[in-house]
């Protein structure tokens, strides 16, 4: 009886289990803080994208108007020589820029990762061009590639009168003149990203490879680079975003010339909307640029996140 009475007296003193808050209300302050960013993304980015796509099917001129013309703007777009040339130029510039930026950036990072002398100075020198705007970069390289005052003029003044290096005035290689300026500005950032990835590799991996007698190049290709896959993905996304919106560099260096040999899609959009006062045509070109990005990113996202989820 005494044991039962003591149990009865103790039982009410036990605290009842606390109810856990609903999942929706967890970290409520953080979710409230995200509301402005989410609203901005939905209203500005998604709203602007939908608005652009809708008005690409209209005959909007100086001002937007809902005068539906179906696919006429797209038919006119793909029948324009300037647009076709701009797509070809962007493809050439994009492939070369993506490959060369990754290769040069990784090589520079690998060299700096060897603990060379004056590493800080070299890192600053390589990264400094990224602090400049594309307009400044374009003007600087326009002077450097000028046939009278640039590389060609300097070399000829030294006695090589037959030397020719004038890419910005040659329609066949003008995109490579733009590529030189783009690589000069963007490679430093990719180098720093790669260097951060290399510094995150455990030193025991290098010690083990030296003990096993594995060559350095094979250690990079078989071990280091696969381990840096997220770093390469980040670098590719940054490079691709810069390629798609290529505009300032072209305007500063060539203004699309000689003729229309260095036209790019972003310049075509700006010229159609503000120069030609044809919003419908500019919206159609913008939609095609968006579609090209979606075609590239959606399969990559499905493979990346879908494969990770299945794993």
TrEMBL record:
Subcellular location: Cell membrane
Pfam families named in the record: BPD_transp_1
CDD domains the record matches: TM_PBP2
ABC transmembrane type-1 domain ranges (all copies): 87-302
Keyword Transport appears in the UniProt entry: yes
GO terms of biological process kind: transmembrane transport
GO cellular component, one term: plasma membrane
Record membrane topology: Multi-pass membrane protein
Keywords on record: Cell membrane, Membrane, Transmembrane, Transmembrane helix, Transport
Source organism superkingdom: Bacteria
Segments traversing the membrane: 32-57, 90-112, 124-144, 173-198, 219-244, 283-303
Keyword Disulfide bond tagged: no
InterPro entries: ABC_transporter_permease (IPR051393), MetI-like (IPR000515), MetI-like_sf (IPR035906)
Membership in a protein family: Belongs to the binding-protein-dependent transport system permease family.
PANTHER family in the cross-refs: ABC TRANSPORTER PERMEASE PROTEIN
Name of the featured protein: Sugar ABC transporter permease
Organism for this UniProt entry: Pseudoroseicyclus tamaricis
